[in-house]
Design brief:
With about 120 residues, this protein is mostly helical. It has 4 helices and no strands.
Length: about 120
């Protein structure tokens, strides 16, 4: 039998989802290292652009669009870069003092509402 004190955030029995645990830990780490001022918040939001650029570069590499380099990336590489974008966005939301899970749940509900309100193609 597992004692709950010995469970890790990634263990399903702990009830702790590693995404949210890691996001809050990353925010705390960044806060301690860089502070929480407006300039730091700006940098965390701008970090999304950097990460999106890396995802775009990976896609270009998958397509082999640079003739000098050829094919340099896989779909898994692109997915990993997209995950970096998503995680960076979650940390930025947390850095705004908001609960990222709640914000993303609201966004998902809004999207589902749009889908439900969209007529089927004829």
């Amino acid at each position: 039998m597992n004692d709950s004190s010995s469970l890790s955030p990634g263990d399903p029995a702990s009830g702790l989802d590693p995404i949210w645990v890691a996001a809050r830990a990353s925010r705390a780490w960044l806060d301690a290292a860089n502070g929480t001022g407006q300039q730091e918040l700006t940098c965390r939001i701008l970090k999304l652009t950097e990460e999106a650029g890396e995802a775009a570069g990976a896609w270009i590499g998958l397509l082999g669009q640079n003739p000098r380099k050829g094919v340099t990336h896989t779909r898994e590489d692109v997915a990993a870069e997209l995950a970096d974008v998503a995680f960076t966005a979650i940390v930025a939301i947390e850095s705004l003092g908001l609960d990222a899970r709640t914000v993303l749940d609201r966004c998902a509900t809004k999207v589902l509402g749009r889908i439900a309100d969209t007529p089927e193609p004829t």
